[in-house]
Amino acid sequence: MDENVLKTMTTFDSLLQSQHLQMLKAAIPYLSGNAKNTLSILCKLLELKKTIQMSVDETSALSMCSVTPEEGGSNILLLLKEIRPYCTKAEQENVDFFVDVFQMYETYASMLT
Q1: Is the full-model pTM beyond 0.90?
Q2: Cα three-residue angle 53-11-97, rounded to 5 degrees
Q3: Is the dihedral of CA 72, 76, 77, 78 positive or negative?
Q4: Looking at residue 93, what is its pLDDT?
Q5: Per-residue CA distances from 16 to 40, 53, 78 (Å)
Q6: What contacts 55, CB < 8 A, 6 or more positions away?
Q7: How far apart are alpha carbons 105 and 58 in whole angstroms?
Q8: Which of 16, 53, 102, 104 is most buried per CB count within 10 Å?
């Protein structure tokens, strides 16, 4: 995976992050071994806590971030396009192939109706 891709945050991750949590994560490389381990665990626990809070609250951003297919689109196409930036070059070629296959199928299906 390209290093620039790792700096790209998914929609889900953006729901869990805060400015302060990002500041804590940025500090991790500058700490000593034990403090580094402790702060790393603390950051993940804070993310887990936020995830649990969002999963319990039905009005949270997590329940509102569901993707609905576009007119004539499908969730699988949206999913493939969403995960593509996080793939290696070889995986991107496979994703592109499947996107093409699904788009051809949708075109074919629309011609039958």
Answers
A1: no
A2: 135
A3: positive
A4: 96
A5: 15, 10, 22
A6: 62
A7: 36
A8: 16
